[in-house]
Amino acid sequence: MFQYIIRRLLIAIPVLFGVTVFSFIIVNLAPGNPVEMFVNPDTTQADIELKKEALGLNDPIYVQYFRWLGNLVQGDFGYSFSTYEPVLNMVSSRIGPTLLLMGTALIVAYLIAIPIGVLSATKQYSWLDYFSTSVSFLGISIPHFFLGLGFIYIFAVQMHSLPTGGMNTLGSDGGFSDTFKHLIMPALVLAAGIAGRMVRYVRSSMLDILGQDYLRTARSKGLREFFVINKHGFRNALIPIITVIGIDVSVLIGGAVVTEQIFQWPGLGQLTIQSIGSRDYPTLMAINFLAAIAVLSSNLLADIFYSVADPRIKYD
Amino acid sequence: MKRVNRSISIAAVASLLLLAGCGGGNTATGGTGSNSGTATTNSGGSSTSAAGKTMFLGLVNPPILFNPINSADVASQFVEKFMFDSFLEMEAPLKFVPKLADSFETTDNQTFTIKINKDAKWSDGKPVTAEDAAFTFNLIANPKVEISVGSYLSMFEGVKDTGKLEDGKTELPSVKVIDEKTLEFKTKAPVDPNMIKEQLGTKLMILPKHALEKIDPAALSQDPFMQKPTVTNGPFKFVQYKKDQYVEFEKNPDYYLGTPQLGKLFIKIMPAPNLVAQLQTGELQMNIGNGIGKIPPQDYETVKKFENVNTKSEAQYGFQTMMFNTEKITDPRVRQAITYALDRQQIVDKLLRGYGEIVDGPYTSVSPYLDKNLEKYSYNVEKAKQLLQEAGWDFNRELNFVVPLGNKVREQSADILTQNLKAIGMKVKVSTYDFPTIMQKAKAGDYELLLMGLTFTLDPEVSSLYSSIGSFNFMKYKNPKVDELLLKGKAEPNPDKRKEIYTELQAIWNQDVPVISLYSDSDFFAYSKQVAAGEPKIFGFHNHLEKWSMGGAQ
């Protein structure tokens, strides 16, 4: 197992390298360039040329890439083309809020979705089943921005019970309960989509298992239904669910972009949107790099959890 | 059968939600008024303390950085002015009042003398001197320093046409420090003082020499000072910028125009719909307007009904245009025909809900240089068709109509404009892009029709748009007569004579129509009734910020 993990980590290096090459090309292929965002009627052509030169945009793309890679190897992500701030500072200050938001959303989603999915499957075609599948369908199909604005309207504007956005009350020192209050709406919006999808996976996965012979055997041994479902049934239903969790990470990154935008949550998603808008190559590269690492490691974790869930799965 | 059941339940849930949504909408206007009084206290927005009260302002576009000589975006320039003072303020069109400068004068329209307020000092106690101003001018002209305000100094004596000094030089020969508080500079030729006063006077903010002189000019942009200014001279001191969330200021107790009334001031950054919601909940006391913190036109009527805020709308000098690639649509009659075909009144009535004006040419009604007698292009389909016939227009030709994303009203206006063009039989293909792509397409001339918003100075100098070498001349418009008149207008020191020149120019542009001004939308402001002094406005927003205050018990 340990060897397997090491091997996977070693394979990750060329994969990451490939990702950086591709994303560098794609980022540079996007029409327009960072300097064009500096143009206003007060800016002269000379100002623009000077910036291009200073940012190294006049060099061929491969020179720019290797300069970027060379710095990266030394732990230097460069500085932002629009704010002139070190990219590492910008990105690292955003990781915490994003992890908090995504983590909370994932936990909330699974806490809601797994029991409902299991119940929905065991009570197939009951009103509860119809209700939960309908609501989960809604969760999947409702756009984040719509749900987000709806929440703001109900909970902030009408009920005055939650803040409309941000991560802390301005002028206060914040603190756990303050952040928690700010976290509720964005986390629920983000959780809605994940939970909706998860209910359906858990339900269908459980339905598969429920028809299997070994459950009938377990029942005929006289085991209580609760144990039949949760010990024998659910454990086996976990395998496909773990796969989905692995994939969810990348879906979550996409959803977080929109949600962070609506609620002014100061995370990576918001930074991504702005960096794209200003063609801030170094910041985009750093975000891509991090996202690649996140996806690779969540896949690895999923593989490790397979063997935990099902001891028959072995890695050599 | 099962499938039918499921879709029924989905439909039921969906309609329930819709009903809930409608119900909420009906009570919205009635319910908010009674809540608004308590809203501010429980939302934690405002706080009262010994240090003074706090105000929260709403902004839509996030500021990028706080480098007064290298910020190209309006939001950064706007936020900088809370902590850095300009020499002058423009309170109303071309009405300049002193700020950091007690006086800003010239006797020959070529040599200018600035006297800096004798009490003005930096937040670390050092006086603001003529040396600081000279230091800033020299940095702008330094060929190694990255800047975005090059045009302010381009008319100074001793700089190249690019606005920069020769390589290797670091000091402007035409800038002289007379004494600690007096600075003199000279332009290449006599110019209209209003032009200098607007650019150098109201837009430029000077940097503290003693804090920055040891930094390598080539690395100035990356210096941490430009993200977190530590030494400033404005009414407020910079505390922190939580990127894209809020900028926090505290009062500068030693401010030379008087200690500010407010203890703290926050500029919060949020999407426009949230701006409306937070005005309603009392989490904001004011929106900033000025194109960067605007209430969406479709929401303005709603905001007007909020009982906790005052509202107003003001005309501004920014405007939206449709540009023609004159290398592809060469016949001015075709461009005139298109102008006649566009129902601009419908855009103002429907999209702007009446809050805006139709403008012909680059000057809006707030500009003293607008020629009010200029013949207007009214909506006239017949005339448009007739002009196209005369010009022998090929009706099978498809025009590439390029629309930038980001401004909702402009995106919607593209639909109306497209319909208008189809109504006279033209074929149009609309493509939308984000802003950097638009800039690339515009520069490359990869379009036939292009929408773009423009904001110039109030000064009529618009060479960047109409001059054949202008950086905004995406129309590839070349008219030697226009080039000549533009140079003449820029060089003419007498405002009355300038007005004649720009009147002549407006007549030419009206004939040639390289670009049509579509509309100028009013700006919308809302500010809390708790605000005792201070309000958002187009002109002189930053004037007397030290007097701003919140009223009564909160």
Automatic annotation (TrEMBL), chain A:
Transmembrane segments: 9-30, 99-122, 134-159, 179-199, 237-263, 283-306
Membrane topology: Multi-pass membrane protein
Primary localisation category: membrane
Residue ranges constituting the ABC transmembrane type-1 domain according to the UniProt record: 95-302
Cellular localisation: Cell membrane
Keywords from the named record: Cell membrane, Membrane, Transmembrane, Transmembrane helix, Transport
Superkingdom, natural source: Bacteria
The name this protein goes by in its record: Peptide permease
Similarity annotation: Belongs to the binding-protein-dependent transport system permease family.
From TrEMBL, chain B:
Solute-binding protein family domain span: 95-471
Pfam families documented for this protein: SBP_bac_5
Signal peptide: 1-27
Presence of keyword rRNA-binding: no
PROSITE patterns given in the database record: PROKAR_LIPOPROTEIN
Ranges that cross the membrane: none
Keyword line: Signal, Transport
Family that this chain belongs to: Belongs to the bacterial solute-binding protein 5 family.
Protein's name in the database: Oligopeptide-binding protein AppA
Organism: Brevibacillus choshinensis
